[in-house]
Amino acid sequence: MKGNLLIIHPRDNVGVALILIGAGEQVSGEGLGGFSALEEIPASHKIALGDIAQGEEIIKYGETVAVAIRPIKKGEWVHTHNLESKRWKR
Amino acid sequence: MELKLTGYQRADGRFGVRNQVLVLPTVSCVNGVVNRIGREVPEVIFAPHPHGCGRGGRRDMEILFRILSGMILHPNVGGVVLIGLGCEVSNTRRLLPLIEKSGKPIEVFNVQEDGGSLATTRKGVEAARRLLTAISNQPREAMPWDRLLVGLECGGSDAMSGVTANVAMGAVSDLLVEKGATVMFGENTEMIGTAHVLARRAKNAEVAKKIEDMIDRAERTAREVMGDLAGLIISPGNMDGGMSTIAEKSMGCIFKGGTGTIHQVVDYGEVPTEHGLILQDGPGYDGDSMAGLAASGAQVLFFSTGRGTPVGFPAVPVIKVASNSRVYKAMPDDMDVNAGSLVEGRSLSDLRSEMVELMVRVVNGEKTLAEANGMDVFTFMTVNPPF
Question: Residue A66 and residue B245: Cβ atoms within 8 Å?
Answer without folding.
Answer: yes
